[in-house]
Every structure is written in C-alpha cells, then in structure tokens.
Amino acid sequence: MEHALRAALVAWLRGGPAPLGTLNAVEEEAPLRASPPWLGIAASASADWSTKDRTGREIRVALELHTRGDDPAADGALTGAIERRIAALPRQQAGFAIASTLFLRARAERRANNRRGVLLEYRFRCLAS
C-alpha cells in the first residue's frame, strides 16, 4: 500500500495547477537531472493500521521541495499550492482508500549556492479496498 500511495501522490502532484506547473520535476526520489524548483519524496515509512476485516497502513511521507533564491518568502506560494493539492488528493485510489490525511510538520532551510529546501511531512491512514 505504501508504494501505491507514493505513486498516486507523485501522479497527483504532477497534474497540479499553477504554481505547481513551475516545478521542473516531481519524482519519487531526487531527480537525476533537474534544476530547481523540483519536488521529491525524501522518505516514507508505514505501520499496521488494520481493522478486524480490512488491511490498513499508517503511512508517513516526507516531501522535499528544492528551490533557488534570496527571498525566504518566495517559496510560500509554492509550498501552499503543494499543501492544498495534497489535501485534495482523492480518497478512493486503485486498491485502497485514504481514510485520513494529516499535515505533521514542515522545515525550511537555506543551503549553499543560494539554494533552499522545504521538507513537508504528512500522515496518511489507508485501508485496502
């Protein structure tokens, strides 16, 4: 279920409206060749969240946005668009249903060569269809 959620999440974010269209890549990992801005899944982990009659997983996903620029506020619009798009992820997916989505935390940092990184962490609770 974890791999299916990751694939669904990447596909959903790739199809997002502006300003998500400004991303040079949306990948499951760091893209091999892409200049900022790009978005990738930094990590994910899952634990059992089954019920008596259905298999379930609690899946935590960390997304990392890589950008470039001097202004720390410039990433705000893009980060907000990512958050809204994740909140709108359809609950029913192929093979599973998302019971709940919860934003956990974010972290932003300035890096060398005028680069910036924003880490967004989410919890998804899913049940097999």
Please provide a written account of the structure.
It is a single chain. The protein is of the alpha+beta class. The chain has a single domain (2-128), classed as 2-Layer Sandwich (STM4215-like), CATH 3.30.2000.30. It has 2 helices and 6 strands. The chain has helices spanning 2-14, 76-87; strands at 25-27, 38-48, 56-68, 92-93, 96-110, 115-128. Strands 1-2-3-6-5-4 form a 6-stranded mixed β-sheet. The radius of gyration is 15 Å and the shape is elongated. The mean pLDDT is 94.
CATH class value: Alpha Beta
How many individual domains?
Answer: 1
The number of strands is: 6
* Category from helices, strands and their pairing: alpha+beta
Q: Which stretches of 5+ consecutive residues score pLDDT under 50? A: none
Mean pLDDT: 94
Name the strands of the widest sheet in spatial order: 1-2-3-6-5-4
Q: Main beta sheet: strand number and arrangement?
A: 6 strands, mixed
Q: What percent of residues are in strands?
A: 35-45%
| CA-based shape | elongated
Report the CATH topology name.
Answer: STM4215-like
For the termini, the CA-CA separation is: 11 Å
Residues in helix, %: 10-25%
Count of helical regions: 2
- Succession of helices and strands: HEEEHEEE
The CATH architecture comes to 2-Layer Sandwich
- Nearest-angstrom radius of gyration? 15 Å
